[in-house]
Amino acid sequence: MGLLATNTIAQGDTREVGLDQLTNDSCVIIRAVPSRKWPGVASLEVAHLWLRQGDWAGSYVLDEQSVEGITPYLC
Description:
By secondary structure, the protein is of the alpha+beta class. It is about 15% helix and about 40% strand. The chain has 2 helices and 5 strands. Strand 2 (about 25-35) and strand 3 (about 45-55) form a beta hairpin. It is globular, with a radius of gyration of 12 Å.
């Protein structure tokens, strides 16, 4: 599944009720861009996330870099 959210998705209460719940329910974050300027006129930073429910044997990509895994903190 794909998720586009404000970049606060990985912070505090927002993370606890969002990404923590998904990862506790067997979702794996397989790719993420933690913060990127919205391309329109709005002054907004967004996070792009790709998730999969269940096991994942593929690669993980964080901010265009290959990593060992991605946590709900998007690190």
